[in-house]
Amino acid sequence: MYYISNQCRIVCADTEGFLDGENDGPYTEEEETSDIGVDIIWEYDMMEELDVFPHNLATCSPVGAGNLLFVITANGVDEGHVAIPSPLSPSFIAVDLNTGELVWEKDYPGENILHGQWSNPAYGVINGKPQVICPGGDGWVYSLEPETGDLIWKFDCNPKDAVWELGGRGTRNAIISTPVIYDNKVFIGVGQDPEHGEGIGHLWAIDATGTGDVTGSHAVWHFGNENYNRTISTVGISDGLLYAADLSGFVYCLDVKTGTQHWKYDTFAAIWGSPFVADGKVYIGDEDGDVAILKAGTEFELINEINMGSAVYTTPIAKDGMLYIGTRNTLYAIKGK
C-alpha cells in the first residue's frame, strides 16, 4: 500500500505488516516491529529530498499507473500565508512504484501557489492517450504526460478577473477537490480552506483532448457564480448524471453532458466529503453528523437522513455489500439487509 505520511513522506508499506514474520526492505530500520507495527518497504522524504514546504499538512492520496506513482507534494506558503519558502520545489512528482526513486519533478505553479496544495492527482486515458491530471495550487488544472511529466494542457478554473486575497476574502479560489475523468472530460470544482468561509465557486467540465492553454477553448460547460459555492468535494457520476456538493451544504444533481441542474438539496450544514452513488442512491455526510440518503435520478427524493453522532467529514464508500462511514471519532461498517 502507498500513502503520504504526516511528515510529508511517501511510504510504501507491506499490507501484511510484521504478521508474516518478515521485515521487508530495502527499508529495515522500523522501531516498532510488533504485530501491529508498519513494515515499511521504502519511503521517500519530500521535505529532505526536494525541499518541499508543506503548508499545514501533506494530504495527497497518490495514484499509481504502470510502474509509476504520482504525487502532489503539498508545497505551499509559510506561516504568514504570504511568502512561498520554496517556490522552485516541485508540486508534482512521479516515483518508481517498486523502489521509490524519483523519476520526474515539475514545479508548474511555482511562485503562483495561493495557499496550500491538498488535492490528489487522477490518471486516465483520453482518446487512447494516457494523462495524469494534477490540480495546481494556483487554481489551474494541469494535464501531464505520465512518463515524463511534460505538459499536455492546462486550464484556469477561475475567471480571469478573479483576485486572491489573504484569508479567502478574494474571488480567486484554489483546488482541493479531486479531478474526475469521464467521457474524455475532466470534472472539477474550486474552493478554499474551510477556515476561509463560504464564497462563490465554480464547477467545470473540461474537454481533455486539447494541448497547451485550453482555458478559452475547451470548457464544455460551467456551473457557478451565484448558483454554486466554494467546494472541497469531488463529484460523483452515474447514469448520465453528475452529483456535486459545496461547502455551504448544498447537494446538486446536474446533467453530465450539459451541466443543466435537475435539483438542489440543502443539508443545512457544511459539507467536506463527497457524494457517493451506489444501489440507486446518493449518500452524503455533513458537519452536523447527518448522512443524507437521496434517490439517484432526475427527480428529487430524500429517502432518509440518519445522524451518526459526530461530524462526517469523509466520503461514504461501499465494498462487497458493506457501507463504510467514518465520523470524526468512529468508523462504521453497515451491512445491507
- Placed side by side, the strands forming the largest sheet appear as 8-9-10-11-15
Evaluate the radius of gyration. Answer: 20 Å
Q: Low-confidence spans: pLDDT under 50, at least 5 residues?
A: none
Mean pLDDT: 96
Oligomeric state of the chains? single chain
Instruction: Name the beta content range.
Output: 35-45%
Give the tally of β-strands: 27
Q: Class by helix and strand content?
A: mainly beta
Give a short account of the largest sheet.
5 strands, mixed
- What letter string, H or E per element, gives the SSE order? EEEHEEEEEEEEEEEEEEEEEEEEEEEE
Label the overall shape.
Answer: globular
How many separate helices?
A: 1
End-to-end Cα distance, whole Å, is 31 Å
The level of helicity is: under 10%
